[in-house]
């Protein structure tokens, strides 16, 4: 027999065996496109915009379907109803964290952990971030201080054209430094600049096309670079700061997150099941940096671009700032309830940006029957948040930037259950409260002190995202900050 025929027959047998094993192993998983051996459904995915592929699959297979990103299945949730049903109505069962192969050799903190570690550390971190009496200054006071520093840095541009990316990244990064270490850094501090550089490297990798198809197919050379913040020098640096805190710790006057964690460690030292260890402190500090820096800076960057594109929106926000806050005091969170239009604008920026289109991968914590399908324990779940934030049933013009999506007929702020940029359920962003505070205080402080000037006609500004992979990335642009 011709060797080529033998090869074809062998490959065909392997393919049939693979398909049989997949079908027998899937049980009652939701339907989906037929996977190929090894690569799964990768050839059917649009790497530049996986969201379009998911939307097309949902039309063929319904709001719950299975895709193979490599050799393992992932169940995709498409649309508000099914995301709510899974993430909120069955929150406990869908509260697991999906597997990240490139994180296997790395210790996991509050973001990527599961089980008791996740529950204990998350509960503590939420409580600490919400405790506005931490130390002598509240978290709001720290954000206000950083907002003033941000304004001063923008003044140094002297109304010249500039790319705002770096300055807008410094502010939220400094906020995490202030919360974790008590002290902020000067924007030109060498240590701070190295930290910013590492964060930037990780963001570039996360926004690459490869991240569209998730870590199951991530190139090895990239996985080595990914999360480079978890390098030995970063751990050592955090450890030194924590050791310093131990030496000067006052249990009656915690200064920052590290102090609060060290106090908790002492309280739990006799608990054999406690997850509060020095190792957990260091990794959780990293998680707060990773989750709380680029998310805010990217949102602010895109907000300024959209405000340049829509000067009529900017004018209304500044009018509200003049009316409620004035020019002679700093914005505070009490102002927010009196500024419905500004609140609507910030919500619409987050909805329109769609920062994390497919959320961090979840996993089911036990075998569960969901919509007549049987999803085995440990199966990866991908909540497609784009399908919620851009749902035409809730938002009249989902593909258009329109603050009216969050305003009622009387101009009052209108909440929406479809607003899920922070995800939903038990795995929703634990820094949501801090993020909302930063976005409001940073943006209102900027618009209180500056007019925004575009270098081109606003009609010619392109607000199209240059990448929509693991995270969405705004395009490059420059603007002038004109002091008021």
Q: Encode the helix/strand succession as letters.
A: HHEEHEHHHHHHHHHHHEEEEHHEEEE
Give the averaged pLDDT, no decimals: 85
Poorly predicted ranges: 18-26, 101-107, 214-229
Assembly context of the chains: single chain
Sheet with most strands: 5 strands, mixed
Strand % is: 5-15%
Structural class: alpha+beta
Organism: Prolemur simus
Family: Belongs to the cytochrome P450 family.
Protein name: unspecific monooxygenase
EC number: 1.14.14.1
Describe the overall structure.
Residues 1-25 form the signal peptide. Its EC number is 1.14.14.1. It is found in: Endoplasmic reticulum membrane; Microsome membrane. Its cofactor is heme. The chain is of the alpha+beta class and 484 residues long. The chain is 47% helix and 8% strand. The chain contains 16 helices and 11 strands. The protein has helices at 3-26, 50-61, 80-89, 115-130, 139-155, 165-181, 190-206, 220-225, 232-247, 257-267, 278-292, 294-309, 311-324, 340-353, 386-389, 432-449; strands at 64-68, 73-78, 96-97, 362-363, 368-370, 373-375, 380-384, 450-454, 467-468, 472-473, 479-483. The chain has a 5-stranded mixed sheet. It has a two-stranded antiparallel ribbon with strand order 5-6. A two-stranded antiparallel ribbon has the order 8-11. Strand 9 and strand 10 (472-473) form a beta hairpin. The longest helix is centred in the first third of the chain and has 24 residues, at 3-26. The radius of gyration is 24 Å and the shape is globular. Mean pLDDT is 85; it is low at 18-26, 101-107 and 214-229.
